[in-house]
Amino acid sequence: QIFRSVFLLIQMLFLLHTMLTVSNYIILHLIPVTIIKDNGLNAKNRKKVMPDLFTEPPVVDPIYEANAYCNIPNITEHGFEGHAPPDHRLLSVHVMIRHGDRYPLYAIPKTKRPAIDCILAPDRKPSHPHLEAFVNHMSKPTKGHMDSSLNGLPRYPSHSVCETGELTQTGVVQHLLNGQHLRDIYIRKHKLLPSDWTTKHLYVESTGKSRTLQSGLALLYSLLPDFEWQKLVIRHQWSTIFCSSSCDCPMRNHYLEEEQRRQYNLRMKNSQLEQTYVDMAKIVGVPTRQLRAANPIDSLLCHFCHNISFPCTESGCIDREHFKVIKAHQLEDEQERREKKLYYKYALLATHPLLNQTVSRMHHVLRGKKEEVFALYSAHDVTVSPVLNALGLLEARFPRFAARLIFELWQGPKNKNYFIRILYNGDDVTFQTSFCRKHNRHSKWPLCPFENFASFVQKEMFAVFNSTDYYDACHRRVF
Ligand SMILES: *[C@@H]1O[C@H](CO)[C@@H](O)[C@H](O)[C@H]1NC(C)=O
Ligand SMILES: *[C@@H]1O[C@H](CO)[C@@H](O)[C@H](O)[C@H]1NC(C)=O
Ligand SMILES: *[C@@H]1O[C@H](CO)[C@@H](O)[C@H](O)[C@H]1NC(C)=O
Ligand SMILES: *[C@@H]1O[C@H](CO)[C@@H](O)[C@H](O)[C@H]1NC(C)=O
């Protein structure tokens, strides 16, 4: 009798084991098929991702793209930042942002500029619960430790008629939302910074424009509410590609010139675009050349994002069709830019110094130095766009207002394993980068090894130049 029971028990255990093995098999092999966009680590992610896949229109629609570019703030910002298997530890985060919504840099000749109020008013939409406290904190007389060229800039927008290129209230709100989202994930959930964080834990750098400084401050204010000004050090970066002291690179300029030639040739081929400029020039009453030089799309996008009707004169109105033709051409230009690879070569050389800095800083952290664990670069579209391109993120959209590109360094359960995650506007794009695309995320390591990123930056990114280092790639002439 006892023998029989033991036998049955063994049989049951065997059955149970088989069932577990089968379900393991199913789990391991179905996930790669069903999850396309995220890294398949968290079942909750799937629900959030799927709607995106269906709402993306299959063909490029200039109006849809323009709306994505405006990034009109809604209640909260979300994304897949900070997702990793539970036994992994977040060590360091690098955030690169484009400034928020701004007033145009160009004016359409002989028309009224859009009427936008750049005084921050919490009761005007779009607003944010922290907007008033932000203004109060920024108005405190204490100086942060900023490089002298930044100290002269206002810390928040404040003109009743926005000045050229000034950050708008929309732009401030966009970055308050970014900061709040990053606070929830990095500070509250992952405790990236100790509660008694000091100057040495942060690294902050901004270009010398008020819109980048103010965008960075808005993000930091939400990330670390009521931070003590004495703890904050902001460095000034004079170069829009953040090349610091490694800017000498003749070949980078060479590829940029070739890229500009490509852009010019594409424009010349587009007769519908040419006709649109002719029509618009007639409406405003200036030579076509002058209108084109005034880069009207910059101003029209501002009208569009702020729901202000396009400018009119006695001869007529600039309308949505004009806007659509120019915007569609921009999208076509981005498509050809990706295919022709001249911009890619420019981007590799332009972004090496910045990426090299990121790798160096992460190396320090993984060797145990608990310094500069959160880095923020407050920058421009011309900063973020080449980084996306150099990483091989060919699907990525042109940086919208308040775009964010994030690098996360993770430590695996066995101490010597380090991983990189890359997120663009909250989407996990790690496995779309050229250095992680081939990584089998269903192997032993579901995340991408940090070493892939490091060796890409230190060596592999120069392979297209038949070179192995920055100096050589920058100076080797190939025509
Ligand atoms: C937020 O805005 C985006 C477009 O910018 C829109 O697709 C989405 O539905 C909005 N979400 C909410 C909660 O309003
Ligand atoms: C844009 O403005 C028009 C009127 O000028 C208004 O009917 C429409 O609701 C506005 N749209 C938004 C999203 O505010
Ligand atoms: C890359 O980083 C290393 C280590 O910090 C540094 O020695 C080197 O000069 C950097 N190279 C460039 C081109 O910035
Ligand atoms: C790199 O070398 C290959 C073969 O030697 C050659 O075909 C290619 O043109 C070279 N590329 C550059 C950028 O020098």
UniProtKB/TrEMBL annotation:
Keyword Membrane attributed: yes
InterPro entries, alphabetized: Acid_Pase_AS, His_Pase_clade-2, His_PPase_superfam, Histidine_acid_phosphatase
Record-level GO BP terms: chondroitin sulfate proteoglycan biosynthetic process; glycosaminoglycan biosynthetic process
Record's bilayer topology term: Single-pass type II membrane protein
Catalyzed chemical reaction(s): 3-O-[beta-D-GlcA-(1->3)-beta-D-Gal-(1->3)-beta-D-Gal-(1->4)-beta-D-2-O-P-Xyl]-L-seryl-[protein] + H2O = 3-O-(beta-D-GlcA-(1->3)-beta-D-Gal-(1->3)-beta-D-Gal-(1->4)-beta-D-Xyl)-L-seryl-[protein] + phosphate
One Pfam match: His_Phos_2
Regions crossing the membrane: 7-28
Entry keyword NAD: no
GO terms of molecular function: phosphatase activity
Subcellular location: Golgi apparatus membrane
Major subcellular location class: Golgi
GO CC annotation, single: Golgi membrane
Alphabetically ordered keywords of this record: Glycoprotein, Golgi apparatus, Hydrolase, Membrane, Signal-anchor, Transmembrane, Transmembrane helix
Superkingdom per UniProt: Eukaryota
Entry's family note: Belongs to the histidine acid phosphatase family.
Name of the protein in its database record: 2-phosphoxylose phosphatase 1
Organism whose genome encodes this protein: Latimeria chalumnae (Coelacanth)
Gene: PXYLP1
